[in-house]
């Protein structure tokens, strides 16, 4: 992974932590997730007019990604309904790079140096340490919250690998990303309408501006990741993206006023060391 790609993916990590903070606004988590997803789709519509649709060969991967993303949105919103950001985010994002690396090595035969593999492992250990500490100090103590967070991690690993293959198959990362965001919004909006009805979705109107801002951050962050996976190994891109847990931890403590833990320092050190290894090797 070149220095330029590395820094761009780091910026995606910061954007990703930002839109996850938006999910914790005073709105039902599923409605908040639907708002963000709808905003992404709306923003992507004019992009499709510019990029065009991806080749037919990429559509099976894109459809599979839409299904996995729907599972991701449902699991993440249910996790946030039951737990704090400081607890949920590290579990969901921390487990994902390890699962992604395993899937990529087994099914895609991606090549990674021993140093890079060690970096991914250290990064994962750092975020798991964050999640364990977050669970002990979580105000909710809801046992289902970590379970939904783990399910979220599984869907993240799934759609990451699928989108890496899809974008490479398309040969046009921007066309694939734009089409994916447009299609991605449709089942989420339909599911929300089925669960809540028009009247139940009315509270979203009060959060249109934060929703659009969060949607723009989400779209930009994952667009970068999709592009990066066409020019760098998928496991490395996934690992660097998960440094967003550091940014999320800062947001959780200083913006959302969630409990602070001194263990965050050790966990962050492991994460940064793992990040350095993925870059150096």
What's this entry about, in short?
The chain is built from eleven helices and no strands.
Q: What does this protein look like?
A:
The protein is mainly α and 281 residues long. The protein contains eleven helices and no strands. Helix 4 runs antiparallel to helix 9. The radius of gyration is 18 Å and the shape is globular.
Helix count? 11
Summing up helix and strand content along with how strands pair, one would put the structural category as mainly alpha
Order of helices and strands: HHHHHHHHHHH
Instruction: Report the mean per-residue pLDDT as an integer.
Output: 83
> Total domains, how many?
1
Low-confidence parts: 134-140
**Main sheet specs:** none
Q: Give the overall silhouette.
A: globular
The radius of gyration computed from the alpha-carbon positions, rounded to a whole number of angstroms, is 18 Å
Helix share, percent: over 70%
Keywords summarizing the entry:
mainly alpha, 11 helices
What are the SSEs and their pairings?
Layout: H1 3-22, H2 29-51, H3 59-82, H4 85-108, H5 114-137, H6 144-170, H7 173-200, H8 208-228, H9 234-241, H10 244-254, H11 263-280
